[in-house]
Design goal:
heterodimer, A: 113 residues, six-stranded mixed β-sheet, five-stranded antiparallel β-sheet, globular, B: 117 residues, mainly beta, seven-stranded mixed β-sheet, 47% strand
Chain lengths: 113, 117
Amino acid sequence: RKEVEQDPGPFNVPEGATVAFNCTYSNSASQSFFWYRQDCRKEPKLLMSVYSSGNEDGRFTAQLNRASQYISLLIRDSKLSDSATYLCVGTSHLSGGYNKLIFGAGTRLAVHP
Amino acid sequence: DGGITQSPKYLFRKEGQNVTLSCEQNLNHDAMYWYRQDPGQGLRLIYYSQIVNDFQKGDIAEGYSVSREKKESFPLTVTSAQKNPTAFYLCASSIDVGSRVPSGELFFGEGSRLTVL
């Protein structure tokens, strides 16, 4: 079982729609979670961190449910420029007590006019 | 402008050849990483380095080698022992030295696409 699992999509939505992605993780010891955005054939970039209490950044809202071990990303009022792949990221242990990032395979979003 | 530079962007290699991918950063970050991305899979960690002259194997280190002789540079060699080297390779750095509670922000280079013919 993959440590971080996402629905690959694609999610095809019209401009202005609200869309939500979920992601599940298997390592209950994961401490931190993030969403990254990756445009086609480009490098990933950090979109936002995910906090237990939920957090918002403009049109984007991230939620964490530790009991069910899933993370969500909600995008309101979708723009054409939101079209990208969204990577769910958890953490896992490296040696020495440090953590590394574990990337999901990504969920593709296509926003159309 | 600060950032990470990877080269080459595209590389073709014959089977049996070693190739080296360059990664240079001017962000003054201690930690650097190499990931591999394949279609339908998440990024997988090949090697990481938390400090100059030290590096550790990631999840899929077999067939790869690295060096960290300078803080700014973390080249990756894909050897002929790597069975399936065709992939998108991403170098990254972070200000966290594999922090116990990482900020999560990795700065990536634009990637190198390696194709084995």
